[in-house]
Amino acid sequence: MQTSKRFEQIALPHLDSVYRAAVAVCGRSDEAEDLTQATFVKALERFHTLTPGTNCKAWLFQIMRNHWIDRLRRKKTRGQVVPIKEDLLPGRL
């Protein structure tokens, strides 16, 4: 069977559960939508690594958790974003 068809049959039924968990983790629906989408994109890319007969829902939750942690780490190392006015930069007229 084609990978995309197997993915649709095995992973997509868990879409609502992953989204609800993402809302619980993020606290905001727009971030939860982004996290859910990123989770399923990564899951599709790595679907060949899922062992047949294992718990796909738990696998998806683990992908979501790892992606969320990576996102938090990037945000932490990037630091606070401070907007500046370009007209105040040196060398600007």
What does this structure look like?
It is a single chain. The protein is 65% helix and 0% strand. With 93 residues, it is mainly alpha-helical. The chain has a single domain (3-79), classed as Rna Polymerase Sigma Factor, Chain: A, CATH 1.10.1740.10. Helix 2 packs across helix 3 (29-45). It is elongated.
Largest sheet: none
- The tally of domains stands at 1
Provide the gyration radius in Å. Answer: 19 Å
Distance between the termini: 64 Å
* Structural class computed from helices and strand pairing: mainly alpha
The number of helices is 4
Give the amount of beta strand, in percent: under 5%
Give me a quick take on this structure.
With 93 residues, the chain is mostly helical. The protein is built from four helices and no strands.
Any descriptors?
mainly alpha, 65% helix, single chain, 0% strand, elongated, Rna Polymerase Sigma Factor, Chain: A, 93 residues
Helix-strand blueprint:
Layout: H1 3-10, H2 15-26, H3 29-45, H4 56-78
